[in-house]
Design goal:
single chain, alpha+beta, 2 domains, eleven-stranded mixed beta sheet, 10 helices, 11 strands
Length: 327
């Protein structure tokens, strides 16, 4: 039986390249799916994948048995699931499947590029595996950052995040809103759509006593209804909106009808009057990228002119349309 010549330095390079590949693959998955993790967990997960690769190398040189088992697809699948769990646990079933889907999609596309490069720079009997791994790494960087990452951020910022202004008496509060397809809240009194806004972002609109009354209503203290009636600036504007999301079922969201909403797109303000502001007392986005959730129907109505609005050029006074309804 012929022997094998093993170059330890070549193995070290291949193992290091594999570790970097696994680490960046998990990093790109986290970037694309916006799944929280940290470098330590990514490193541990990458080490788990590299350990499997080390065992595979040893088995391929007959240093250990189980070569067929280590390259068996169910075993590779289990290893990848273990890696994802180490990097991103805890995940619910739906989220787990989504993350795994992106993990495999990025992995297969980058591995395909790496295999192609390995055979391009090598021969059918002796592919340049190390070159292939580094090409695959470059492909991951392209997908995770230069490609999908930038595109995703631009789309998220310019399509799904829209600044709005909330008008209340002589005050104007500007916040960033996220167009949320899951926001289907309606005002039960007038059937108006509801924009959910963090209380902290609009707290300056209310006096301290009025803010306290609203807070008491939010926690279920209905004894404050008599106090709200004495607040002339809010008595006729108050809304109680039932919901079954935002962290609890069969809840009540306290809201109010503002004087108007300016939806800002490319420097143009479009006035909306038939809408309600729902007050949410917790952070909507831990990263602080947005402070409000806007139902998509508001944008749909603007585009199709089904909602009457007043369009103003930001910073100017010229009217693009003069019709708006009184509430």
């Amino acid at each position: 039986m012929p022997g094998y010549v093993i170059y330890i330095d070549a193995w070290i390079v291949r193992l290091f390249a594999n570790f970097v590949f696994e680490f960046l693959l998990l990093w790109a998955t986290a970037e694309v799916t916006r799944t929280p993790t940290n470098r330590g967990r990514l490193s541990l997960a990458a080490i788990a994948g590299t350990l499997h690769y080390l065992l595979f190398l040893m088995a391929s040189f007959r240093l250990i048995p189980y070569y067929g088992l280590l390259r068996f697809f169910p075993v590779i699948l289990i290893v990848s699931i273990i890696m994802v769990l180490i990097a991103f646990y805890p995940l619910n079933k739906k989220r787990m499947l989504s993350v795994l889907g992106y993990f495999y999609a990025i992995g297969f596309s980058s591995a395909g590029a790496g295999i192609g490069a390995a055979y391009l720079f090598g021969t059918p009997t002796n592919p340049q595996t190390t070159i292939g791994i580094f090409v695959a790494i470059a492909m991951i960087l392209g997908i995770g950052e230069l490609g999908w990452g930038i595109v995703q951020k631009r789309i998220f910022k310019h399509v799904y995040q829209i600044p709005i202004e909330i008008l209340w008496k002589d005050q104007t509060i500007r916040v960033d809103s996220l167009v949320d397809t899951g926001n289907r809240l309606r005002d039960p009194l007038m059937n108006h759509s509801v924009i959910v806004v963090e209380y902290e972002a609009i707290s300056k609109l209310f006096r301290a006593d009025v803010a306290d009354v609203i807070r008491q209503l939010d926690v279920g203290n209905t004894n404050t209804f008599s106090q709200i009636l004495s607040a002339n600036d809010l008595a006729t504007r108050l809304r109680v909106i039932p919901f079954s999301s935002l962290g609890k079922d069969n809840g009540l969201l306290i809201g109010f009808r503002p004087d108007g909403i300016n939806v800002i797109s490319e420097g143009v303000k479009q006035r909306i009057t038939n809408t309600i502001i729902g007050i949410h007392y917790r952070k909507l986005d831990p990263e602080g990228n947005y402070q409000a959730l806007m139902p998509p129907e508001i944008l749909h109505n603007i585009v199709h002119s089904n909602t009457e609005f007043e369009s103003l050029r930001e910073g100017g006074h010229s009217h693009a349309a003069s019709t708006h309804s009184k509430v």
